[in-house]
Amino acid sequence: MFRRLTLTTLTGLVLLPASNVARGGPNTADLKFKAHHIFVAAADSGAVVEFDENGVFVRSLKPPALASPREVRFGPDGLLYVLSDNGYVLALNILGTVTKTLPVGPGVPTSMAFGAEGHLFVGTDLNRVLEYDLELGQQYLVKTYTTHGVPFGLAFGAHGHL
Question: What's the pTM?
Fold first, then answer.
């Protein structure tokens, strides 16, 4: 059963997979995001909004570093990655605390996708695609496009190609 959600400026939506079920432990490090919850990048409110599996509002995540979120994705490390309009990709933990800040500049992030190796790929408004090795903390320029426009909707195909 689906419930209707009315949101303004819906710029990103992700459904948490069942594999990220909360383990419930005494430490916040043991907690994970709850399964089947929906996370929405709500640019108008400058927050990431969480809904439960029935479409009921749970909470709004609005860390100070977040500006007009554009897209949300769960990373292989269990963190929620958010494209921020201020030129960063932010990684949030279960508490909504920023645990990683990845600079995109120059430019503003437009889309993102995780590759099979766990690397994060980010498109920018300056017609570039960047690759981040999250374990090493390295950023690489993958491609600069001069005539094909801004890279929106990054995704990997069945053969692992971007």
Answer: 0.78
